[in-house]
Amino acid sequence: MTTREAISTVTLELDIAIRPARRDDLPRLEWFGLYTHYRRLFLRSFEEQLRGQRLMLVADHNNYPIGQIFIHLPDAQSSFGRPRRRGYLYALRVLDPFQGHGLGTHLILAAESILRERGYRWAVIAVAKDNAGARRLYERLGYAVFAEDPGQWHYTDHLGNVRHVNEPSWMLQKSL
């Protein structure tokens, strides 16, 4: 049935809070099994959040994370004694039924605000070369391509299997 054929339509307003992830969010970040293979990555990121090395932001609706963005927070000083100036945004996701309503934009803006508050000068984000929609979003928000990345990495899934990822990407940055 299309909207045109519907008997009636309704527009719903949802209360969504963007907040740091809590330990009890970790199973829900698997989104009904879609991201179960990232279970160990989620736990490692959460442990690094507790140590101040990362921040996992979630878009919470009724105590369920319907969106997320993670921030890698490099040490304040590089090994050369100079301030680090780049924070790295990654793992931006919005649950399918909530896409297209600006939630990804709000997550990015919240992450940028945190980076600014912590003294970072640049936000960096990668986008798969075949993800034109995400690239358009980032460019609309002021990000510009500055490099390519082969996008080759690996991780250990929830079953202990090493998974290899090959996702050539564009690296984009934005001055904060």
Protein architecture, described:
It is globular, with a radius of gyration of 18 Å. The chain contains 3 helices and 9 strands, in the order βαβββαβαββββ. The longest helix has 15 residues. The termini are far apart. The strands form 2 sheets. The protein has a 7-stranded mixed β-sheet with strand order 1-2-3-4-5-9-6, sandwiched between helices. A two-stranded antiparallel sheet has the order 7-8. It has a single domain, classed as Gcn5-related N-acetyltransferase (GNAT) (Aminopeptidase). It is of the alpha+beta class and 176 residues long.
Map the helices and strands.
Layout: E1 17-20, H1 39-50, E2 54-61, E3 64-72, E4 86-94, H2 103-117, E5 122-128, H3 132-140, E6 144-149, E7 152-156, E8 162-166, E9 169-175
Parallel strand pairs: 4-5
Antiparallel strand pairs: 1-2, 2-3, 3-4, 5-9, 6-9, 7-8
What's the mean pLDDT score? 92
How large is the count of helical segments? 3
Q: Using DSSP, what is the number of strands?
A: 9
Strand count, sense and barrel status of the largest sheet are: 7 strands, mixed
CATH homologous superfamily, by name? Gcn5-related N-acetyltransferase (GNAT)
List its salient traits.
single chain, 176 residues, alpha+beta, Aminopeptidase, 7-stranded mixed β-sheet, two-stranded antiparallel sheet, 3 helices, 9 strands
Short structural description:
With about 180 residues, the protein is α+β, with helices and mostly antiparallel strands. It has one domain (about 15-175): Gcn5-related N-acetyltransferase (GNAT) (Aminopeptidase, 3-Layer(aba) Sandwich), CATH 3.40.630.30. Helix content is about 20%, strand content about 35%.
